Amino acid sequence: MKNLLILIRNKLLCVSYIFLLRPVLFCFDPEKTHDFITQVGVFLGHHAFTKWKTKLFFSFFHPMLEQNILGIHFPNPVGLAAGFDKNALLTDILPSVGFGFEEVGSITGEQCEGNSKPRLWRLRKSKALAVHYGLKNDGCEKITSRLKGKNFKIPIGTNIAKTNSPQTVETGAGINDYVKAFSKFTDIGDYFVINISCPNAFGGEPFTDPEKLNRLLKEIDKKETKKPIFLKISPDLSREQVEGILEVCKHHRIHGFVCSNLTKDRKNLKIKDNINYFKGGISGKVMDDLSTNQIRLIYQRTRGKYIIIGCGGIFSAEDAYKKIKAGASLVELITGMIFKGPQMISEINRGLMFLLKRDGFHHLTEAVGTE
Ligand SMILES: Cc1cc2nc3c(=O)[nH]c(=O)nc-3n(C[C@H](O)[C@H](O)[C@H](O)COP(=O)(O)O)c2cc1C
């Protein structure tokens, strides 16, 4: 009976979002819409009553989906990916929206205005977004003071990147910038993500180079923290590049990977929109298979040694399940929620429960990497 009510609730929310709210939101500039939705989220997160109401609309819980990973309890495997809550303003409301965890950031050593506007586009035919934010964020100092002493209801990942500025292009300066932000968060949040794959910043992605990555991770190793550390990588890396990164990671305190960040490849056949009217990296359905293939490669190469967070083009429970069977223990998303609405989180969790039961699994962990 409860399941049926949740199904009806989700269907009503889905129809309302797609036919009423989305047409209005999509009339406005994507960045302005994003900022407006963030303000709504901040408001809803400020009051116990609005949080409770939000939970009533969006929550879903099932013990088959709960996991303890690296000492962290995840109430469900669906998280919000980095980039939606760059300044960690939504940590109070996201548990009520049904997320099992959240990655805040990317956060950099210094405050950063990002690239010039416009810097966000909807690629409607491709079911994707083009992102050229260039790591806009308030910087590690402001964001730590916002989060210090907070009691989080879901695990929080702090995604650290290098400040987007000519001053951090030199390798040593870039490493110092990462280390500055990293040091600020050693005891805030539950896990780290080191983002070495921002497609839109000064100096490109230098830390995909094994030697530079080794230097960066050596400095990170010196910092005392109990938090697990993930590396977020580009979906455009070749097999050899991924293997190079895995070889380096063997020698450092790396617990897992986030696969993947945005793709830069304009020749991707899944791009159905005109490529001349946007800049930056592309999310959503355009990179779905790229990220799943990368999850599979890392899982198989390392025989499940690392925890993988799958990310890219998740619009349904089937999409999430594909990544889990390829080797992901957790998944995260942004684009699917923008195209299909926030009830999608609960739909994915509910759908996962049915898919696991259909395939004879008693718990999500049994399905990881079984492809
Ligand atoms: C608007 C936007 C901003 C993003 N900013 C960041 C960022 O600051 N740091 C990061 O690691 N990834 C960032 N990403 C990439 C996402 O975290 C994610 O890897 C990518 O969007 C694929 O997931 P999706 O298809 O579910 O959106 C951003 C994505 C979007 C759409």
Automatic annotation (TrEMBL):
Catalytic activity: (S)-dihydroorotate + a quinone = orotate + a quinol
E.C. number(s) listed in UniProt: 1.3.5.2
Pathway it works in: Pyrimidine metabolism; UMP biosynthesis via de novo pathway; orotate from (S)-dihydroorotate (quinone route): step 1/1
Cell compartment(s), UniProt: Membrane
InterPro entries named among the record's database cross-references: Aldolase_TIM, DHO_dehydrogenase, Dihydroorotate_DH_2, Dihydroorotate_DH_cat, Dihydroorotate_DH_CS
Primary enzyme class: oxidoreductase
GO cellular component terms, A-Z: cytoplasm; plasma membrane
UniProt KW Signal keyword: no
Domain Dihydroorotate dehydrogenase catalytic: 64-353
Key words of the record: Flavoprotein, FMN, Membrane, Oxidoreductase, Pyrimidine biosynthesis
Molecular-function annotations in GO: dihydroorotate dehydrogenase (quinone) activity
Protein purpose: Catalyzes the conversion of dihydroorotate to orotate with quinone as electron acceptor.
Homology family: Belongs to the dihydroorotate dehydrogenase family. Type 2 subfamily.
Full protein name: Dihydroorotate dehydrogenase (quinone)
Source organism (scientific name): Candidatus Nomurabacteria bacterium RIFCSPLOWO2_01_FULL_39_17
